[in-house]
Every structure is written in C-alpha cells, then in structure tokens.
Design a protein that fits this description.
Blueprint lengths: L1 H9 L15 H10 L10 E11 L3 E12 L8 E10 L4 E11 L4 E18 L2 E19 L4 E16 L12 E14 L10 E13 L6 E16 L2 E12 L9 E2 L15 E2 L1 E12 L4 E13 L2 H4 L5 E11 L7 E9 L4 E7 L4
Antiparallel strand pairs: 1-2, 2-3, 3-4, 4-5, 5-6, 6-7, 7-8, 8-9, 9-10, 10-11, 11-14, 12-13, 14-15, 15-16, 16-17, 17-18
C-alpha cells in the first residue's frame, strides 16, 4: 500500500492525484504539451504548481500539493520535469517526496527517479475483519525505458522500500504479518501505447506489462516474484460518446508481503472496494465505462466491473465474483487539453457505496 500511495504523491502534479486511481500520465502529458513551444535546454524551462483534492476508500478525503520545473532537452523529446509533492488526508495520513522525469536522445530514453516518505493510516482486512493499521516508511523508485518505436517501449525498474507496520490502536488483534521490512525489487517493463489522446482517449489501446523479482533484505532466504498485465482499450460510439474498457491479470508468489499482493482496486484501479479489502496471490478483473459528453467542458460516465481474487488462477473461478458499478461526472480543466476533474459514486455487491474524487480518467 505504501508503494502505491507514495508514488501517487510523488507524481501528484504530473499525474492524477488519486491514491490507487487514475491513469498515471494525464497531467504529465499536459505539462509536456504546454512546454513544447518553449526554447530548448534546461535553463529555458518553466515553474508550475497546483493543489489537487482527492477522496478514496482507503485514506479518505485530502489535499495534495505539487510543484515543479519543466524543460525540454531536445526538439523531439518529451518535456523533462523536476518536482516535489506532499499530501495529507482527513484520517491523518501524510506523504511527501521528490521526483524527476527526464526524456532525452530524441525521446528514445525516458528516465524516472523518485524518493519519498509516507505515514499512512488505513484498514487492513484479515478475513472479514477490518483492523486499523499504521504503516510508515521510505521509498526509492526508478525506471528506465527505451523506445523501440514511437509506440513500443521496454525497460527496467528498481525499487527500494523500508517500512514498518503496526496496529493504529490497541485491541487484542492477531499478530500482523511483515511488521518490519527492508526490500528491493527489480522489474522488467513493457508498454505499448496507440491511444489518440492521453487525457481522454477515444481510440487505440494501452498495454502495460510488469515482471518483478523482490528480495526481503532483512530476512534470510526470502524472495518473491510478481507479474501483472493491464490491457486498456477505447472505442468511439459516436461524435459525443465512447467506451473505455480494461482487463487485468496479476499473479504474485505466496511469499510476497501483503502490500505486494494482487489487489482488486490497487492493481487495476477498480472502483467499489478498498484496495486492502481483496488481496491475494492471483487476480482477474474486467471493467467497462461509457462516456457521454454533456457540453464542451462537462461529461458523464457510467461504469461497471467484475473481479476475482484467489490463491492461484486454478481456484479463481470457484471464488466469489466481486462486482461494482456507478455513475460519475467529469469537468475538463482546460479548453486546450482534455485533462479532467472526476467525481464518481460506486456501489458494490455488498451494498457499500464509495465516493471517489481525483484528477484524470480512471483509465
């Protein structure tokens, strides 16, 4: 959980600020396009800053603040960004960090480096029992991608995490797993992106695949693997409406820490459940969203999804099918770019309703 939230805070101005939510490139691309007409070189950049409200099922409502310096190193490369962000939510969770995204050599190479600290309060589900958890720690994350073509990128990621976990209140709860961890993770990454627009695509697809190997550095002989794949597609239905859909698959080893497990909501941006409600070693999910323009700046969405979690793929279809759906509104933040402010209300099959507030489309 710490990994997802800290990375979201670090990307707060450059991506959607919702924790466990939203496509991770929307505002980043807005900055890139805004800077494309500026002179080239580090000293010819621009400073930017923004507050971003959010609300989600895990840490509640809050405000994220971000600021950065953006510049373009050569004519064909995307805009590079150096920035910082901070977040605080209504339940006392907080995080801050620094981030750098560099694009160079005619956009063939893309380097991202981030470091941050988080102190989080959330409920962890032990079976059907929700127990209050406090997790804090330090995170370093880096990725390096190489463009084989304009649409296909491959690369690697390196992550270091030091975290402690304890109950937020006393109450005679059972012992927690993985209360003190120091870990390193090495990942192989692939991305295939044919979307016509990164903010609110109407055609094309985005495929992200990750294969990770992690080691628990402060425990002897403990390692794990994890693989995930996300396919997101877009289909226009008419001049003012379209469909967006996502399929997700995830498999983690049984030795993975609980916050590295496959998560309905954390792995796939599924709306309707807390990202700590259904954690397991295998996941399959599917989501669809209908998008309808109401005016030049306002639009509405209707969404639904189903998901399965279990100890392995063979047992998934004997597990209970989880489902959720809902309605949402979108407001386009700029006439020039299609980055949106989003408000969604979801209802799940357990008759729970959850409000989400974030920047960007969900996927």
């Amino acid at each position: 959980m710490l990994k997802h939230i800290t990375k979201a805070v670090l990307a707060v101005f450059f991506s959607s600020a919702a924790v466990f939510a939203a496509s991770p490139e929307d505002l980043n691309v807005a900055l890139k396009k805004a800077a494309n007409d500026d002179d080239l070189g580090f000293t010819r950049g621009s400073f930017v800053a923004a507050p971003i409200p959010f609300k989600n099922a895990m840490i509640g409502a809050g405000l994220a603040l971000g600021g950065g310096y953006m510049f373009q190193l050569d004519e064909s490369s995307d805009t590079s960004i150096l920035g910082l962000g901070a977040m605080r939510s209504e339940n006392g969770s907080s995080a801050f960090g620094l981030m750098g995204n560099l694009a160079f050599s005619q956009n063939k190479w893309q380097l991202s480096v981030a470091a941050g600290k988080a102190d989080l309060f959330y409920d962890l589900y032990l079976g059907n029992l929700a127990v209050p958890i406090r997790q804090d720690g330090h995170l370093f994350n880096s990725t390096l991608l190489y463009g084989l073509t304009d649409e296909l990128h491959v690369g690697a990621g390196l992550r270091y995490l030091e975290t402690t976990i304890d109950y937020a209140t006393s109450g005679g709860f059972p012992p927690l797993p993985d209360t003190d961890l120091e870990m390193g993770v090495l990942s192989a990454l692939a991305k295939w992106d044919t979307r016509d627009d990164t903010f609110s695509a109407r055609t094309g697809h985005l495929i992200n695949a990750t294969l990770s190997y992690g080691e628990i550095l402060n425990q002897s002989d403990r390692s794990y693997t994890k693989a995930s794949a996300l396919y997101t597609g877009y289909q226009p239905l008419g001049p003012s409406n379209s469909l967006a859909y996502r399929a997700a698959a995830c498999r983690s080893a049984s030795d993975a820490p609980f916050f590295e497990k496959c998560s309905l909501g954390g792995t796939d941006a599924f709306r309707g459940f807390s990202a700590t409600r259904y954690l397991d070693d295998a996941l399959l999910s599917a989501q669809v969203e209908f998008r309808q323009d109401l005016s030049s700046r306002f639009s509405a969405v209707a969404f639904a999804g189903v998901g399965l979690t279990g100890p392995d793929f063979d047992s998934l279809f004997s597990s209970p099918l989880r489902s959720a759906g809902g309605l949402g509104l979108r407001f386009q933040l700029s006439k020039k770019f299609k980055a949106v402010f989003s408000v969604d209300m979801s209802v799940n099959d357990e008759h729970e309703d959850i409000l989400y507030i974030y920047v960007g489309q969900r996927f």
